[in-house]
Design a protein that fits this description.
Blueprint: E1 5-12, E2 18-25, H1 30-37, E3 46-50, E4 68-73
Parallel strand pairs: 1-4
Antiparallel strand pairs: 1-2, 3-4
Amino acid sequence: MSEGSIRVFLMSSAETGFADYLEIPVNSTIRDLWQRHMAAHDPAKYIIRCERHEGRLPADFVLQDGDRVTVTPFKVAGAELPGFED
């Protein structure tokens, strides 16, 4: 890891999904992470969480070395709930 960077684990269920450690600049926010690694996706359609924060993360949440970020869609393509319509 280079000086001036941190390492975070990003696990995403977007499309086919992926999970990997990423090296990002110190003081990066969720917005920065999204723009670098998830820009093709609309963040409003996902729940974004970090193990050291309760609930959904605000876009200006500053990431720390070792954080584990998970990205989960609100609605999984093809999933249906009985009696539920969009």
